[in-house]
Design brief:
Layout (H helix, E strand, L loop, with lengths): L3 H4 E2 L2 H7 L4 E7 H6 L1 H5 L4 E7 L8 H13 L7 E6 L1 H13 L6 E5 L2 H7 L7 E3 L2 E5 L6 E4 L10 H18 L1 H7 L16 H17 L14 H11 L7 H18 L5 H11 L10 H12 L9 E8 L2 E8 L1 H12 L3
Parallel strand pairs: 1-8, 2-3, 2-4, 4-5, 5-8
Antiparallel strand pairs: 6-7, 9-10
The structure holds nicotinamide-adenine-dinucleotide (NAD).
The site of nicotinamide-adenine-dinucleotide has 27 residues, from helix 3, helix 6, helix 7 and helix 8.
Length: 347
C-alpha cells in the first residue's frame, strides 16, 4: 500500500540516484526559474527545462500540446522523469502531460507554493480547464513522488500564502476541529501574514488529512470527495473571476466553504448557527466579490458541468459539524442561488 512516507522524497540527490534517473524534463513555473536559479543550477541530474508563464487561464489544452511537442523535439523517452517545479497549475499540467506522453512517465512534484505543498502535489489528480469548466480534462496518476523544500516559500507573495490558508480552512472543517481553532490565531488580513505564522506541523497535518482520504478512495468515488468541500461553488467563483485575476484558488475555496455550509444547514446536516459561525470566521479573511444575478446564473451553469455530479444531479460534500463532512449529497438550483446570496448578506 502507498503511504504518505513512501511518496515523500527526503533527499533529492539520493532519490534520483536510487531510481537511476539519468535525465529529467523539468516543467517549471517561469517566475520560479527566475527567482530560484540556484535550485536549477544545482539540480542533481541531466535535464532540460520547459518554462511556463503560469496563470489559471493558461491551464488549458493548447498548453499541454505545446509541452508534449517540446518533449518530442527533445526526443524525451519514457525512462526520462517529468519533474514539476511550481505551484498547483504546474503540478496539474505537467502531470497530465506525463500521463499522456508515450502512455506514461514517472513524475516528481517539487511544489513551490504552500497550497501545492499541502494539496495539489498530492493525490495524483491531473488536469486542465476547458470552456471555463475547471479541470474538465484530466487523469488520475499514481506514479508520482513529492519533494518538499520550504525555502521556495521565501519568495512566495503574501497573497499566495493566504490562498493556502483557504485550503487549510477546508482541511479543518472536514477533519480537524483543533486545526480550526489554531487557524483562529492567524491575522485577519493577507497583508499581515508571513511564513513564520504557519508552523510546519500545520503543513504536515494537512498532508496527512489529504493522504488519509486519498488512500481509501484513490479514484474519488466515495469518501475522498470530502476533500472537494468548498470546491463545487468555489470553482464556479474561481472560473467566473479567472479573467479578472482577482481571486486565488484558495480564496475561492474559502468562499465556497461558506456557501456550502449554508447548503449544509438548509439540508439540516448542520445547525444554521454553525453555518453562520463558519461565515463569521472565514468571510472577514476572504471577502466575497460583488455577484450580479447574471453572475450567479453563469456560475450555476458552470456547476451543472461539475465532475462530481451524478445522474444529472448536482452532487457535493456537505459539512456535518466542524471537523466532519459527508461526501456525497445532492443539492438544488434554489439552494445554490441562495448560498451565493448568503455570501453577501451581513450577519
Ligand atoms: N490536483 C490537485 O489535487 C489540486 C489541488 C488543489 C489545487 N489544484 C490546482 O492548483 C492550482 C492553484 O495552485 P497554486 O495555488 O499553487 O497556484 P499557482 O500554481 O497558480 O501559482 C500561484 C502564483 O505563485 C507564483 N509562484 C509559485 N511559486 C512561487 C515561489 N516559490 N515564489 C514566488 N512566486 C511563486 C506563480 O508564478 C503564480 O503566479 C489551481 O489550478 C487548482 O485547481 C489542484
Amino acid at each position: 500500500m502507498i503511504t504518505h512516507n513512501d511518496l515523500l522524497v527526503n533527499d533529492l540527490e539520493q532519490f534520483l540516484t536510487e531510481n537511476q534517473v539519468r535525465r529529467a524534463v523539468i516543467i517549471a513555473d517561469r517566475e520560479v526559474c527566475q527567482l530560484h536559479g540556484n535550485f536549477f543550477r544545482s539540480f542533481p541530474c541531466n535535464y532540460c527545462t520547459y518554462p511556463l508563464k503560469v496563470s489559471e487561464t493558461k491551464k488549458n489544452w493548447q498548453e499541454i500540446e505545446k509541452i508534449m511537442k517540446f518533449m518530442l523535439r527533445e526526443k524525451i523517452t519514457t525512462d526520462t522523469w517529468l519533474v514539476n517545479v511550481g505551484g498547483g497549475v504546474i503540478c496539474d499540467m505537467g502531470s497530465l502531460s506525463a500521463t499522456l506522453y508515450k502512455r506514461g512517465m514517472h513524475v516528481l512534484n517539487i511544489p513551490t507554493t504552500l497550497l501545492s505543498m499541502i494539496d495539489a502535489a498530492w493525490g495524483g489528480k491531473t488536469g486542465v480547464n476547458m470552456s471555463k469548466v475547471k479541470n474538465a480534462i484530466g487523469t488520475y496518476n499514481n506514479d508520482y513522488h513529492v519533494f518538499i523544500d520550504i525555502s521556495f516559500l521565501k519568495t512566495l507573495p503574501a497573497k499566495e500564502l493566504w490562498s493556502a490558508v483557504g485550503e487549510m480552512f477546508k482541511y479543518a472543517l472536514i477533519a480537524d476541529k483543533n486545526l480550526w481553532k489554531k487557524l483562529g490565531t492567524l491575522p485577519t488580513s493577507e497583508k499581515m501574514i508571513n511564513m513564520e505564522m504557519i508552523p510546519y506541523d500545520w503543513i504536515q497535518t494537512c498532508i496527512e488529512i489529504k493522504q488519509h482520504f486519498v488512500l481509501q478512495d484513490f479514484r474519488d468515488t466515495g469518501i475522498r470527495r470530502v476533500l472537494n468541500a468548498g470546491h463545487t461553488l468555489g470553482h464556479a467563483i474561481e472560473s467566473l473571476c479567472a479573467n479578472k485575476n482577482i481571486l486565488t484558488h484558495g480564496h475561492a475555496v474559502a468562499l465556497g466553504l461558506i456557501a456550502e455550509a449554508y447548503i449544509s444547514a438548509k439540508q439540516r446536516f448542520l445547525p444554521m448557527n454553525t453555518a453562520k459561525e463558519i461565515k463569521s470566521k472565514i468571510l472577514p479573511l476572504f471577502p466575497a466579490p460583488r455577484l450580479s444575478s447574471r453572475d450567479k446564473t453563469i456560475m450555476y451553469h458552470l456547476i451543472e458541468n461539475d465532475k462530481k455530479n451524478n445522474h444529472g444531479k448536482i452532487c457535493l460534500p456537505l459539512i456535518q459539524e466542524i471537523g466532519k463532512c459527508s461526501p456525497l449529497q445532492y443539492t438544488l438550483r434554489e439552494e445554490i442561488l441562495e448560498a451565493f446570496s448568503f455570501l453577501e448578506e451581513s450577519g
